[in-house]
Amino acid sequence: MTTTPLVSERIGQFFLGEDRLEYTEYGAGGRWVVLVHGQLMPRRMHQPLARALAAQGCHVVTLDLLGHGRSDRPADPLVYSMTAFGEQVLALLDHLGADQAVIGGTSLGANVSLEVAVLAPERVRGLLVEMPVLDNALEFGLVVFGPMMLCARYLPFTVGALRRVTRPVPRGLVPFWAGIVLDTLDQRPAAMAATLHGIIFGRIAPPSRQRREITAPTMVVGHPADPIHPAADAAMLAEEVPGARFVRARSILEWRVAPQRLDAEAADFATSCWETPPAERRSGS
Predict the structure, then answer these.
(1) Domains in the chain and their CATH numbers?
(2) Are 135 and 233 in contact (CB under 8 A)?
(3) How many other C-beta atoms can be found within 10 angstroms of the C-beta atom of residue 235?
(4) At 114, is the secondary structure helix, strand, or coil?
C-alpha cells in the first residue's frame, strides 16, 4: 500500500471589499494549481487530491468561494454568479502573486474553471475539469436544487434543523467523506437561498461558442450513470475544447473511494502543463 508523502499545509485569507475568503495551500513552488469545490461543499473536499498533486511538486491552493465553507456567506443573491466566482479565483491568484495556474474543480468548480478561462485566458496554464454541468444536466439540476432553494427561503427551519444536528459532530471521529457531507449540510438558510438563487438564475457556464475558443490544455473527467453531471456533458466539453482529453471514471465514486488512477492522471496532466512552454501547448503539437 502506497502512502502520499507529507507536504506543508497553510491556511490563508484575503478580502474582496468587505467579504473574507479563506483558502489552504499545499506544497510550494511556482507550479500553481487551484482547485474549486462543488456546489455548497467546502474546499476540504479536495484535500486528498491537493495532497497528491503537491506530492508531485505542484503548489496547490483550495479555495472556499463566497457562500461556501469558511468564507463569508452574504445573504444577497446579487453577489453570487459563475462570473463572480471566476473573479474570486482571479483575485486569489493576484493575492498569491501567481501569474498563471492550472485551474480545476468539480461540478460547480468545473464551471467556475471554465469562467476563469474565458475571463482571463492568459492566466490559465491548464484546465482540470471534473463533472461539468452543461446542457444535458440543466433540467435535473433544477429539479434537485430548485426545491432546496425554496426550502431555504420559505422553510428556513428545515435548513437550521440540519445545521443544529450536523454541526456538533466532531469531524475527526467520522470517515473523511462523511465529514464532507456533514460540512455540506452545515448551511445558513438565508445565505444558502441567496447562493442557489444566484447560481440557478444566472448563466450556468460559458456558452458553447466561448468554450470552443479555449486554448488552454484541458483534461475533462466524466462519470457514468450520474444524472446531475451526465457523462454526455463532459464528453461534449472535451469535443468542444480543441485538443482536450476526456477521461472516463469507472464510477461516480471512483475518485472518492479509489482515487489512485485518477490522481495519477491529474498529476501527470498538471505536471505536463508546466513542463510544456505556453507557445507549444497552444500550437497543439
Answers:
(1) 9-273 (3.40.50.1820)
(2) yes
(3) 15
(4) helix
